[in-house]
Amino acid sequence: MDNSPRKYFRLRFLLFLVAICFTPQAIFAQDGSEQTSEATAEFTLGEPPARDGRVARLIAALMPRNHISAKRLDDTISERALKLYIKSLDPLKLYFYQSDIEEFEEAKLEIDNMVQNGDLGLAYKIFSRFIQRVDERVAVAMELLDGEFDFTLEESIVTDPDETEYAKSPQDSRDRWRRQIKYAMLDLRDDAADEEAASDTEDGSDDYTEQLQRRYSRYAKRWKQTDNDDLLEMFLTSVTTAYDPHSTYMSPGTLNDFQIQMSLNLDGIGAQLREKDGTTVVTRIIPGGAAAKHGKLKTDDVIVTVGQGDDGEMVDVVEMPLSDVVDLIRGKAGTLVRLGVKQGGVGNVEEYKITRARVQLEESAARGEIIEHQVPGSDETLKIGYINLPSFYLDMDAARQEKADFRSSTRDVRRILIDFQEKGVAGLVLDLSKNGGGSLTEAINLTGLFIDRGPVVQVKNSDGSIQQYADEQGGTTWDKPLVVMTSKFSASASEIFAGAIKDYGRGIVVGDPATHGKGTVQTLMDLGQQLFAHNRANYGALKVTLQQFYLPDGQSTQRKGVTADIVLPSISAKMDVAEGDLQYALEHDVVAGAKHSVYNMVPLDLLDELRVQSEKRVTANEEFTDLLRRISSYVAQKEEDSVPLNESAFVARRQELESQNKDEEQELVEQMNDGVVYRDGFYNREVMNIVHDYIQGLREKNLDNAG
Length: 707
Hints:
alpha+beta; 2-enoyl-CoA Hydratase, Chain A, domain 1; six-stranded mixed β-sheet; globular
């Protein structure tokens, strides 16, 4: 393959990689020390500035013109936008009355016209009502906190907002808040039952009443520090995310933060976060980062407290805006941050001490190892190569400067493959199970190591035109059997690679039933430049979905991802972390297939045989049996929409969750530990068994190379 620097710039730039992942929230000053009396301070936001109306009109024009759907800003978008805006303010349905919602819904088909006219009156009206309701609810909460709670009552609280309704009366609201406070009390009391957790309360005491008073007071105070830019971002993002979840409006302040993070600020714990129902949830652990090295923090964990250094105060971040949580967590490399974490959002709070670090390319680069493997019951030992590829990376600066030794995932994998060839490796596993994507160019070039030449990905533009991007270099680096490991966390560029390998019949995919399913491309449009070509004033930016990916055979990776040829059990397959779990995610569709070669390395009869053999081994394996038990327990817990408020029942449920978390902790640490290339656990051993059978099966058919 051609590995010259110019090769990396022949393709049109397609992917705008977002280094932060969040649901837009108002950005507030950071101060957790307010007294209760300040919660009801006077709030005045004022009238929308004239420039905000111009921005709204521009968004209304740019979205239909640039979005991949080419959909007009119409009544459907309007109705969605209202729901999203209300949800961004009150995700748990704790503040608004049902009568408020009914009043707002009278304008549910008018938002499109309002935005087109630059009219932000409805956004301000809803927000002002929200502030009023927050003051009322906090006042009730403070009154309830001065009273007593009976933890022996047989009652529960609905925790799934989709399964509850807005309060219909003050009495209904008061009862909801009584249960909400009782739930928070039980949560804090149970954490304090463990001596280590007890030392992590905000002031080192067990005064849960004061802790909750500060939490609710701080929540009200922060909302009142919302400014016009914050409100504009929330409202216009509700409009853009009504098109799809990745299209957002960034206010001037958010845009500045984003540009700093993209260009300079690489220090932190190496985790992507999002806000969900008032909590901070981990969405991705970045390979090579501090959290990956630490090993315990994982996707779907909830961060509830943050402390600085060895003995800094643990700040309660429940209901704290995500931007403030991020500010607390990130910091200079070498400094320590302490996180209070609930694994998967349940159970007791565990404290993780993570030393902030800069993500190093070397630590997120491809690494390989040769495994001497023998299937149980077989007499033959085979050399199987294993490559762990955490991301599709490219040193853009060095490549631009045409340096001869610039780093890229393709170059590193090619070097490993040549070494495997020289050492007589019979088959290969390429592990993309934790690969969230990266450079599209690299996904295409890496595919070229395994196919002779041909289209790798098709891209549809907002005007409906289709472009093909191909591996244009003849020859392969690896023509022996190939197995690609994937999971629900394999996204974007990973899906393009795995999908192309499947379409070409070049190898088999093993792992979760399907990959993540993100098949869209976003770009950032500077609104100041759109409004005034020569004016660099900061009006914020529009991040808009303008293209969609398709595989060589024409299937989109959107929503459906890439399906595995052989499925192995895993908890990740049951997590709600895929593209299809996001509200208003774009639908899967199909375009015409591109002409390409098909290798005869995945005979259907052999694939069926491999599935049968793997299923027999999994069924007979005690560790897989235990994993299936834990998966069943996880699914049952996830489907619960209520929690008991009787203390005995609450503690019993919590202990059950804790027991399961402890069972999984060592396994998760091993999975996330970047210090080991190949982990010899039961899951990976079964992957190796599949590869072993695959190699032997192809040899029997004289198909063990892609010549």
